[in-house]
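Write out the 3D structure for:
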Amino acid sequence: MTESELQQIQSIITNLEEKRWHIPYLSELENHEVFWPVFKSLSEEEKSNIKKIIDEYIVSKLDWMKTKWWLLFKRFYEIDPDLFWKFRDLNEKEENVENSEFQETWKKVEQEIFKLEGILTERMFKQEKGLDKVVWSFYNIVYSFFPRYGRIE
């Protein structure tokens, strides 16, 4: 893959994230209203490379942001990267929401996210101003990596 192709793909990922409020999956690129012909025509090796690019984008995004809520979310990734990637993969398809593996994994993720939310807000409960904004910002991060996070049975 050439450097210009790599930059184009990263640009597409960034633009789709901004438009859809979550980091896209390869399947979303393959079904995109404009880019689908390019992504559908890729070989399996090229698709594997695209998935790696998306994964690298995720890791770089975690390293890039430095707000307290980003750092806490990054802590979740660092504490249990296997759980992070498993749940990220399970969030790719809508039909996964109904399977027991999604539900069981979601419960584990929810426990960790709830702990981090508690750390984030522990000193803010006496303040009325700002608490909602902080919690909302934190969960926006969660949903950007796990678009089906709230989709539980």
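DSSP finds eight helices and no strands in the chain.
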